[in-house]
Amino acid sequence: MMKVCFIPIDNRPVCYTLPKNICAIDEDIELFIPPREYLGGLIKSANVDVIFDWLNHLPHIDVFILSLDTLAYGGLIPSRRITDSFEEIKTRIERLKPLIEGKKVYAFSSIMRISNNNYNEEEKEYWNKWGKKIFEYSYNSSKYWHIPKTDIPKEILEDYMKTRKRNFEINKMYIDWQKEGLFDTLIFSKDDCAEFGFNVEEAKELENLGGKTKTGADEIPLTLLARAVNKDIKVCPIYTEPEYKGCISNYEDVSIEKSVLGQLELGGFRVVNTEKDADIVLVVNNFVEKQGELVMGWDTQPYNKTFIPPAKPYAIADVRYANGADNGFVNQIFSSDIPLPMYGYAGWNTSANTLGSLLACVKVKFNAKKYNDEAYKKLQAIRYLDDWGYQANIREQIKEPCDIKELMKPFEEKIFKKVGLINPTLNVNYVYPHYIYPWNRKFEVEVMID
Predict the structure, then answer these.
(1) Is 287 in a helix, a strand, or coil?
(2) Is the separation of the CB atoms in 380 and 417 below 8 Å?
């Protein structure tokens, strides 16, 4: 039995229930994860003292997978909002050291993002007026290496830069911990990244100090889970648009090919160049020139080929669109006799988010000592319902969180039959999905299957 302690970034379904659903595929993995009410959300911080008490009472653990933002700041969003000083945060997080000394530890910490909008839902209050201006100030400072003129009020800019510097100093402290041997793997995540910016410069400095950075955020604990499952798996990535694999995804600063290779490397996979040498083929449904995003009205060239599945077992990373599936691609799979990919499908949020969660599923299933097929089917049903049914279709049809049960029924019928959650003899559905909005916004829905 492999005992894993998993500290998520926050209480969102992709951070909290997705790792539980992935680990359920192998009954030989015992997952220890804090009760959900202890974790942070959109408008509250995690109860860090209670989580540390929970950590102190765990049995023997084989692997720790830690979102350091939760233990230092109370979560990913609080890391941008709280006013605690460097010393206060340092004192808080140092309680972790005696708990993990001599253990196998895979950890990550975020490099504070700079969103290019005027929405303060996940930022400090002043972001609703000055967010874009701060992004431009950061972008131009990084690109042209001088302090640009700006009309951002002095006190707002000073507060923003003070928060950035504090978080950056905490990240540099983690590099010292790594040099002491506390981490087997330490990753600094570049969340919602552009080509230039303070966050890009911080990433370079952390790398110069010996740190390792990775584009993405929410998926990184899952990629670290894949890394912790120590199994040599040979993967051959192939692209539906191979001539465009050098294009950069929305919200990222590297090409889709580099994103794929980076996630494979971090997940502990071995990349091979030919399908015949592979254990598993990773099919990447990439985009032509510019990644689309349905909810933002950003279109891209649709998938207009006939999908021929690889001869080898395969998984699908659907990244033609950000924040949802490619309808043309998925509709083709569900309207044909093509079996669903044996090792999973994902198509949520950013390209890195999709890749990291998919690869965790691949690694756990491939290596499963006590494989649970029902758990795998449930996981896949949730991904298709969320990434395809909701994100790529229903989300555009509703104005605010509401009851979507009737709207989702056509997708449920197709998905449950194809996945195998319908009795093929009686054609009776024996699963009962329901949908909630954990953060009371349309951006994420939680699909729960009984």
Answers:
(1) coil
(2) no
